[in-house]
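Q: What would this chain look like folded?
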Amino acid sequence: MASPSAVHFCPKCGKAVTPPATPPPAAGGGTPAGNSAGSTTPSTTPPDASSQPSGPPTNFKSGFEKCFAQVLEPGRFTGNYEALFSEQEKTELMAYFANYNLPDKPPSVFKNMRLTRSQKILMAGVMHVRDQRMEPGKWGSKPGHWPNEQQRVARANCCGHWAKRVWEYSGIRTSHSWDAKWKRYLPWKEAKEQWKRRWTPFDFKGGPGPQMEAIKFEDYKAIQPGDYLCCKWRRSRTGSNHAFLFIKWLNGNENSKRRKALIMDQSNNKVGGGKIRNLNMSCDPTKTPYLYARRTPKPPTAAPA
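A: My prediction, written as structure tokens:
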């Protein structure tokens, strides 16, 4: 019987094609030896060595503070924060701390009513970022994604899908109508037409263009950790949108209209996977990138089912 990877079918013409032979993995894992995608595919070893566990933590507090170091302050995990977690939740998180492999099913900690929505989003985002496992690539939205291209296991189709996936992993229920609650500053007629076309906050096939207005300064000042934000990289009609999750401000003050922020996002859709990085963003459309949409989680009224 032929190998499942021996024959593929071209998504354009439907003819059977044979992908390039998959070279043996390089010693120690990572991108296969001789793979030309190696110049663009990140190594399985993250830039920050501290992002990977050196072994099972000795106790819950040390494991928690190493894993979630970048969100401790914005998440307000201070004082005796360990009391927020039950023994079962600690046991499940300790198992994750040992290898940073994201569980397929969200741990019970995301049903914890003692944690705020922002805390859960920050934890879920970091757990996605920390999982650095790679796997053979799958067919993507473009031809040529052969199985020998390495992709992250904890990945999404695009930046918006990644941020939405993190929200849902944290226990926030979303739906195809969730954009109706977005704070969008578009002419009503145009906004209504966009809502009819698709649930996403922007048009992936070209973007809404220069007419997309920036968020109001009052909403810019009110951004909170865990907020789902969308920005425009430039004022053009090309696809120049991006979605990400906010962690905290790194400079400026409440009167600044352009500030540097620490964010979580998926910026490489071909390889996938999230990362934590800095991003300058404003509420002034003349200073790109500028924000045009913000969604903030509401406090839960009851424990998730």
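The radius of gyration is 21 Å.
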